[in-house]
Write a structure and sequence with these properties.
The complex is a heterodimer of chains A (about 350) and B (about 300). With about 350 residues, chain A is of the alpha/beta class. Chain A is built from 14 helices and 14 strands. The chains are: A alpha/beta (about 350), B alpha/beta (about 300).
Chain lengths: ~350, ~300
């Protein structure tokens, strides 16, 4: 248990009648990217604020990086970097001045902050922009600066609250590559290198190999499934609870061989026919196609049976095939079984 | 019978030296659901503002429901609905009061019509719920109701389901499909792939240019030429470096605990062999599906 970076048990937090967090337990290992996935109001941000000690839970225990957050909140916080949804940058200050500000607020000395900041700016790809005013950065660069600021204290746990809202896929891809590199061994050693007392080649390699134990962990919140699919482990949140938790791969496996894609026209006739098939549990429209969720072991039967029904209704079938289930399909299936 | 609802020819808007919208062309027909996908600043909103007659084009022209958007902007605006993410709902009013208020703005005082709209968006039974007590998903439905109260033939939706989970998104889109079935034409602007997947056709915007417009399936087939593979191998970064350097591999990206590879020429067995020879342990390699994100990344390059 001691090697967990986050060990939170049975957290509860209510605001009046609103049970924002209603029995959440969270266990995050070093080097893990954990995704809290759910809609606005599902309890993601409240959970994060509990983890950093910004809110006190009504019930439950939280241990972060070995510290009990209720008793040792300062020590715990010193190990955590937090990039909130609305992080603020000083637009009139340069990139480096912004980081310096965050570093000094967090109590880093003058001799510490500069080499560290330069190293981190290099890591996030802003090395050449350190003297540019933050106000003149693109949206993606601002985001990287936010990340760099959260990293300047070399946290062991990084909390990212919907970090890529409003940015384009190219920038988002870049951002994610940084996050993944941060938790994976070789890149981590770059950030870790100066922490080692003897930064010789062999120690450099050792710090890389031992980082499975010492690695940074990331908890990221998002309502989007394409982001969820990039995490090592995902917790689906709904109404303050984690309704399912597993790797994206295992979550998808729960619906393996149970999702079919159907294309043809008119789409409404297809929907109608699919809806009336006894082995089809759910029909979802996705633009120019339908996703059918079928009963376990019935995919082949549906693939064989449906075309005749479609033709009989005078509709045209273009394609009917089994597809790998998406996290979205899994989330919807789970939500149905978790209705209160 | 399909009529042209939106027709755009060489539509261009400059702000000084900056070309916000750069010679775009497209058509939208009755009952279609078309997505307009692009990051913030790509020209989506500028396009919509021109289509609503709020902003004059620098060049080119556009008609909406047969009216010239700039010369006849009053006619256009009275016949279209617009739902914006930043749309103001009055928190202290109930859903019915909000709808009645906004109906009044359009000159709609018919109570039966207001009631009908409330039912249409699935808020019947919640007439007297204060808006501030409603979930994001319900607020989005109310916003949709407000955009629909004057029974427009064309609906502009700006990121209508941002911030909700897949269940709420699905429920919202089921409403949109019903509207389209009844002949309402819908144009959705968004930068979320999850939303774009719901559209019948999707236009991809980047830096003011409309890079492509087609069905999601056709975009994936025409733009992603290779196969998509999900490669589970350790150590991940060495796998990334190795596969990135292989000729015939179009793109490799880190996807959390695995690599996502798009490759037109290199097959599974070859990847397996190359990785294993380099001492990288391969757990599994599975076939993946192309996503609209892959399309966007390919077009943006």
């Amino acid at each position: 248990m001691t090697d967990l970076l986050v060990n939170a048990t049975n957290l509860h937090k209510s605001f009046g009648d609103n049970h924002a967090v209603d029995g959440v337990s969270l266990h995050v290992k070093p080097g893990e990217i954990y995704g809290l996935v759910g809609s606005d109001g599902a309890g993601k941000t409240t959970t994060m604020r509990l983890l950093v000690g910004a809110l006190r839970p009504d019930e439950g225990e939280i241990n972060v990086c070995g510290f009990d957050v209720s008793k040792q909140v300062e020590q715990a916080r010193s190990q955590v970097g937090y990039l909130s949804q609305r992080f603020s940058l000083y637009e009139d200050l340069t990139v480096l001045e912004n980081i310096r500000f965050f570093a000094e607020v967090r109590g880093l000395s003058q001799t510490e902050w500069l080499p560290r900041s330069l190293e981190i700016l290099e890591f996030v790809g802003l090395g050449n922009f350190k003297d540019r005013r933050a106000g003149q950065l693109s949206g993606g660069m601002k985001q990287k600066l936010g990340l760099a600021s959260a990293l300047v204290t070399r946290p062991r746990l990084l909390l990212l609250d919907e970090p890529t809202t409003g940015v384009d896929p190219v920038t988002r891809q870049d951002f994610w590559q940084l996050v993944i590199k941060l938790v994976s061994a070789p890149a981590l050693s770059v950030v870790e290198a100066q922490r080692a007392d003897h930064p010789s080649t062999s120690d450099f390699a050792k710090s890389a190999s031992s980082s499975a134990q010492d690695g940074v962990s990331v908890i990221i919140s998002t309502p989007y499934m394409d982001e969820a699919s990039r995490c090592h482990r995902v917790g689906f949140m709904k109404l303050g609870r984690i309704i399912a938790e597993d790797t994206p791969y295992n979550l998808r496996s729960r619906l393996a061989e149970r999702v079919l894609e159907l294309r043809g026209s008119p789409i409404n006739t297809l929907r109608h026919v699919a809806h009336h098939d006894e082995d089809v549990e759910d029909v979802a429209a996705f633009g120019d196609k339908l996703h059918l969720r079928v009963k376990e072991g019935r995919a082949q039967a549906v693939i064989e049976r449906l075309p005749a029904g479609i033709t009989a209704q005078g509709a045209e079938l273009i394609e009917l095939r089994s597809i790998p289930p998406a996290l979205e399909d899994v989330f919807i299936a789970l939500s149905e079984t978790n209705h209160d | 019978m399909t009529e042209t609802v939106i027709s755009v020819q060489n539509l261009t808007r400059r702000f000084g030296d900056f070309v916000a919208v750069d010679h775009i062309n497209f058509e939208v027909h009755t009952g279609e659901i078309v997505g307009y996908l692009g990051p913030n600043g790509s020209g989506k909103t500028t396009t919509i503002r021109m289509l609503l007659g709020l902003l004059a084009p620098s060049e080119g022209q556009a008609t909406v429901l047969g009216y010239d958007v700039f010369a006849q902007s009053e006619e256009v605006r009275s016949r279209v609905g617009y739902m914006s993410q930043k749309f103001a709902i009055y928190d202290d009013l109930t859903s019915l009061e909000n709808l009645t208020f906004y109906g009044g703005v359009y000159g709609i005082t018919d109570k039966a019509r207001i009631q009908r709209t409330l039912e249409l968006v699935g808020l019947k039974g919640h007439e007297s719920t204060l808006t501030r007590d409603m979930s994001t998903g319900w607020r989005q439905r109310l916003s949709l109701g407000i955009a629909l109260v004057h029974e427009p033939k064309l609906l502009f939706l700006d990121e209508p389901t941002s911030g909700v989970d897949p269940t709420a998104r699905r429920e919202f889109w089921d409403l949109i499909y019903e509207l389209a079935e009844d002949g309402v034409t819908i144009l959705v602007t968004t930068h979320y792939m999850d939303e774009a997947e719901y559209c019948e056709r999707v236009g991809v915007m980047r830096a003011g240019k409309l890079l492509a417009m087609d069905t999601p399936t056709a975009l994936k087939r025409s733009i992603i030429q290779g196969d998509v593979w999900e490669v589970y191998a350790q150590p991940l970064e060495r796998g990334l470096d190795l596969l990135s350097a292989v000729e015939g591999v179009d793109r490799v990206g880190l996807a959390g605990d695995h690599l996502r590879v798009i490759s037109s020429q290199v097959q599974k067995e070859t990847m397996q062999r190359l990785l294993t020879e380099a001492g990288i342990s391969v757990e599994k390699i599975e076939r993946g599906e192309a996503s609209l994100e892959d399309v966007f990344l390919s077009l943006a390059r």
